[in-house]
Amino acid sequence: xxxxxxxxxxxxxxxxxxxxxxxxxxxxxxxxxxxxxxxxxxxxxxxxxxxxxxxxxxxxxxxxxxxxxxxxxxxxxxxxxxxxxxxxxxxxxxxxxxxxxxxxxxxxxxxxxxxxxxxxxxxxxxxxxxxxxxxxxxxxxxxxxxxxxxxxxxxxxxxxxxxxxxxxxxxxxxxxxxxxxxxxxxxxxxxxxxxxxxxxxx
Length: 202
Fold this sequence. Notes:
Layout (H helix, E strand, L loop, with lengths): L6 H8 L4 H13 L1 H13 L3 H12 L4 H16 L3 H13 L3 H13 L3 H13 L7 H13 L3 H13 L3 H25 L10
């Protein structure tokens, strides 16, 4: 049976020694926000990297300035404790804040951990390059790494870049090849495993 979670987050749950307590905290949060957050805080303070991630994510999506600061701190602590999920959520938070240099640093750390969605997100960031001149060649480099790791949106973005940038006829051929090669795997994963990291954009 396929996990309802992505491969990495499932791995982190499998390695979480306080998984039962963490599950209880997340369930409690659904019915009583304050109680759930208090339980998450206890678990995070006790060293659970996954609890730090969930607590940090809850805080940074709360929209209050104090919550943003607190949430960012918990996400940093989660990443420092080894959580790939925590580091990815920290990068996403930085992008929401338009702190592109900070986001790039976290995504490069995810690339060093061989995490394909991080490779894709870094390639996308370098191509969009909100904070300066975009780097097509560097974006392609990381997107190719993500594609080699089986990441399907990376294949789609590569196709787009080869079609839109100045690669001429060769680029259009490569673009169509990437599109055609992606379709069977995309259909299978969307049907059987829609939460797979192979489909994850951020």
